[in-house]
Design brief:
mainly beta; Immunoglobulin-like; SH3 type barrels; 4-stranded antiparallel sheet
């Protein structure tokens, strides 16, 4: 009897070693893919570099780069995919650069592609913020199909406010345990910069797993401007962007509410109180005050737009 009890205890301990719930394991970055062209008139291969930048070169910041070699005596094109360290809202620009001297001649490649958008698990981050991470689950043997719910919340331990969620479907397992790793991308309100926690309701409802705090990074907007005192506005009708807070300063660029209404960081209002100053991809523009309302989502909860006068 004691021997049977020992065997049963060992079996329970081994079974408990399997993850009864999927567990978030690693935050992910985003990718940018583009095709660029280059020329090498020399009979030798030459070194080159490809970059992803926040603005056309020589401006902007380098978000990612890698080296490659241009074959001898060729004019060609190549598709590159670079991974950014964290989700970044576009636009971004792809650059191919090389400079080679064969005395007395110097030849330079410097081509730019863009604007491009980033991709975080097939979710464009041009207008939406995205949190991307891995979920790992070692499923016990002989386990039926199951579904896990992955939530992003504003506090750890399943607390706070739910800001987004997704589902993962797991197939049945055979006679041996199977480890699944799924990359999950969850969109959160545009401009959301507070920390979030990935919280997993285990497959079949057994147990929980958590990863955090994670940054719902909406590109470099927080690094471009001091957002203390800024607010979030929701666009309610189409409008041109204005280069200055004057009716005659309308540009040919139009932002619209279709297919989905957009939200924008609002820095303040002009001295005439007719225009709001907003941020788009590290640039500032003006829009008429009647085109924005306070963002009504469950994060901003219609917090008033800033009433301070800005230049």
């Amino acid at each position: 009897m004691k021997r049977l009890l020992v065997i049963f205890t060992v079996f329970v301990l081994l079974f408990a070693g399997f993850a009864l719930a999927p567990t978030p394991t690693r935050a992910q970055g985003c990718t940018v893919t583009f095709t660029g062209s280059y020329t090498n008139p020399f009979p030798v291969s030459i070194p080159a570099i490809v970059e992803i930048r926040t603005a056309p070169p020589p401006g902007g910041t380098v978000l990612a780069s890698q080296s490659f070699t241009i074959p001898a005596s060729t004019t060609s094109s190549q598709t590159f995919t670079l991974t950014l360290p964290s989700p970044y809202t576009g636009p971004v620009y792809g650059r191919i650069f090389s400079s080679f001297t064969s005395f007395p001649f110097t030849f330079t490649n410097d081509t730019t592609s863009g604007p491009l958008t980033t991709n975080c698990g097939d979710v464009s981050t041009l207008e939406t913020c995205v949190v991307t991470f891995d979920v790992t689950y070692t499923k016990p043997p002989g386990n039926p199909p199951s579904t896990a719910t992955v939530q992003l919340r504003t506090a750890p331990g399943g607390g706070g406010t739910l800001v987004g969620q997704a589902s993962i479907n797991y197939p049945a397992t055979g006679s041996t345990p199977t480890t699944f790793t799924n990359t999950v991308s969850i969109a959160v309100p545009s401009g959301y910069v507070a920390p979030v926690w990935a919280y997993v309701l285990g497959a079949g409802g057994a147990g929980t797993g958590e990863l955090g705090p994670l940054q719902a990074n909406c590109g470099l907007v927080p690094g471009c401007f001091n957002l203390v005192g800024a607010g979030q506005g929701k666009l309610v009708r189409a409008t041109p962007l204005y280069w200055a807070p004057r009716p005659e300063a309308a540009s040919k660029i139009v932002i619209d509410v279709t297919p989905d209404a957009k939200t924008y960081w609002v820095l303040g209002i002009d001295a005439t109180r007719r225009f709001y100053k907003i941020i788009i991809a590290c640039g500032t523009y003006w829009v008429p005050v009647d085109t924005l309302i306070p963002n009504p989502d469950n994060v901003w909860r219609s917090a008033p737009l800033p009433d301070r006068v800005v230049d």
